[in-house]
Design goal:
The structure holds 2 protein chains of 2 kinds. By secondary structure, chain A is mostly helical. Chain A contains 13 helices and 2 strands. A two-stranded antiparallel ribbon of chain A has the order 1-2. Chain B has a domain of 67 residues. Classes of the chains: A mainly alpha, B alpha/beta. At the A-B interface, helix 9 and helix 10 of A face helix 2 and helix 3 of B.
């Protein structure tokens, strides 16, 4: 630049080299070319194609046997067990987690210590050990009684009757789940702004109302993604109940696999696809739950896939119209 | 359209707010050092002071968001947070303290509206939760109060969709929904953009003229001059001087008051 600093140079006056016919102001900006991006895309596409090709053509997977097993009643029965165990443990685990989190955040040092110890112990013991331990519970304690320690029992019942395999599975998974859920819930409660507690308290809202209607709904926004993560782990953990002789999805496939050893691979594929479906369903539910609890947190809610599609189409139309007009 | 909150003045009427020899420490730091303050019913008191002088803490002691270590506070003749038993002061249960707070309005610097509730539900929440009104009556009251602060058409909005000034006006309506005997304002305009300060001050001024007892911590000297019946200057956890605005603001007796006013005016 030969001009002294401070002199404004209009774009239209700037020397143009390749398109002398049009002034610069009337030109469209050419997007930056990204050859590297095209190369990476090509490599990824080739790898994906190879993988799909292998999946379809490799006789190792025996897709015909997969089709045979996918909706077999034994597999579906197992799926129902998996769903029941997972759903019950998820609900009980979350309730336990909320109680443990409240205990941990309470002013009572005894409750805080008890909650901390529980979480510490249950997070340390492998789930499979908890399950097998509970399975053998009836051998350790003949009757389970509820009452004052060393004192009178308020009521008691025969352990072996209670300890159906299902109960063992649900109790074991819930105990484990509660320990992790406690930390998720506690994190969620701590994420709520201190000003919210103060405002609720300054308005004289009763303590339980403060938690149920003010703090917890806001905490759920950060609890949801973390708890869903936990829930997906739980769904897969249900495959461990096979070791307490409960025939869940994985257990059924495992049993069928030992009866039909040639079908082990397609059976594992059946199990894989079902777990993929379960996780996908949970993810979709997660999206809508998160959207629900985002009310008020953002100025506008995140769009649903259908809204996104509509917006995309409108965008594209506008773009085509713009391109055509230039 | 005035909400009748203050009792008619009479000689036997107890002070709306009485702060008696209150001391408060944060760890080793003394925030309040023997504060005595009496606010008469219907009076508008503005508390001024440099930052860190203890003025916000004093306000928070009045509705027991902060517990004083020594001294006591009473509102409309009722001890706050404590009871007298056998010549001693005993701490009240949390439930009783919450019930007392329900008779004292508090407006925060940062509004602290509940972001997950609509504006209408924010205002209606407290009367419903404390069992004073049924849901329909509470919603009716909330609509009326939102109309009074000029937000009748925003009832369905969520707080974050509003400007700061609108949020603070909702917060004032929320405090009014308790039909409080006293309303405490903790720097109600400090978090606002300058052009939004006026709309909030106008609402507070409207309350002041309608005879509600107000205690306001603020930095708006001009506003203090206009609405205050009494200005209290506080520094180092102590009340340095107090009196009608024209005395304290125009002819301050104390060096520290003069010093502070010369900086903010």
């Amino acid at each position: 630049m030969s001009e002294p600093p401070g002199t404004t140079v209009s774009l239209a006056d700037a020397p143009s080299t390749d398109v002398p016919s049009k002034p610069l102001t009337a030109q469209r900006v050419q997007p930056l070319r990204r050859p590297g991006r095209w190369l990476v895309t090509l490599v990824v596409l080739v790898l994906v194609a190879q993988f799909i090709h292998g999946l379809v053509t490799n006789s190792f997977y025996q897709w015909d046997r997969f089709g045979y097993w996918f909706l077999r009643p034994t597999i579906l029965d197992g799926l129902v067990i998996t769903l029941e165990v997972a759903a019950l443990s998820a609900v009980l685990g979350l309730l336990g987690g909320i109680l443990l989190a409240l205990a941990r955040l309470s002013k009572s040092p005894v409750l805080r210590a008890a909650s901390w110890t529980y979480v510490w112990a249950l997070r340390s013991i492998p789930l499979i050990v908890v399950l097998i331990f509970l399975y053998n519970f009836s051998a350790l304690y003949q009757t389970l009684s509820i009452g004052v320690p060393f004192g009178p029992a308020f009521f008691s019942f025969d352990e072996s009757k209670l300890a159906t395999d299902m109960a063992v599975a649900v109790v074991g998974l819930s105990l484990n789940e509660a320990a992790y859920a406690a930390e998720v819930v506690r994190g969620g409660i701590l994420s709520v702004d201190q000003g919210q507690h103060e405002a609720a308290s300054a308005l004289g809202l009763p303590k339980s109302y403060q938690f149920r209607r003010i703090v917890f709904p806001q905490a759920l926004r950060s609890i949801t993604p973390n708890y869903v993560n936990q829930l997906i782990g739980l769904i897969k953990s249900t495959s461990l109940v096979f070791y307490v002789s409960l025939l869940d999805l994985f257990g059924s496939a495992q049993t069928m696999g030992s009866t039909y050893p040639g079908d082990i691979v397609p059976l594992l594929l059946v199990v894989t696809v079902w777990y993929l479906i379960l996780t996908s369903v949970v993810s979709v539910i997660q999206f809508y739950v998160e959207r629900h609890y985002a009310r008020g947190a953002t100025r506008s809610l995140p769009p649903t896939p259908i809204q996104k599609l509509r917006a995309g189409v409108t965008d594209l139309r506008a773009r085509i119209r713009r391109e055509a007009s230039i | 359209m005035t909400v009748k909150t203050a009792e008619p003045l009479a000689d036997i009427t107890p002070a709306a707010v009485e702060v008696h020899d209150v001391h408060k420490w944060y760890g080793a730091h003394r925030v309040l050092d023997g504060v005595d303050l009496t606010v008469r019913p219907g009076e508008v008191t503005v508390i001024l002071g440099p930052s860190g002088s203890g003025k916000s803490t004093l306000l928070r002691v009045i509705n027991h968001l902060e517990k004083p270590e020594i001294g006591y506070v009473s509102v409309n003749g009722e001890l706050i947070g404590v009871k007298q038993q056998g010549g001693r002061l005993k701490e009240l249960s949390e439930r009783a303290i919450l019930a007392q707070r329900g008779r004292i309005g508090f407006v925060f610097q940062n509004f602290n509206l509940f972001p997950h509730l609509t504006v209408l539900d924010n205002v209606a929440a407290a009367p419903v939760a404390t069992g004073r009104l049924g849901k329909p009556e509470a919603l009716e009251l909330a609509r009326e109060l939102l109309g009074r602060v000029g937000l009748a058409e925003k009832t369905g909005a969520y707080p974050r969709q509003l400007s700061g000034g609108q949020q603070q006006r909702v917060a004032i309506a929320r405090a009014l929904a308790l039909r409080p005997g006293v309303i405490l304002f903790d720097e109600p305009t400090s978090a606002l953009d300058p052009e939004l300060v006026g709309e909030v001050l106008a609402v507070i001024k409207d309350l002041a003229t309608s005879g509600t007892t107000l205690v306001i911590v603020t930095h708006e000297i001009g506003f203090a001059r206009e609405v205050a019946d009494r200005v209290v200057f506080i520094d180092g956890g102590k009340i340095v001087e107090q009196g009608p605005p024209h005395e304290v603001l125009d002819e301050p007796q104390h060096e520290r008051t003069r010093d502070f006013l010369s900086k903010v005016l």
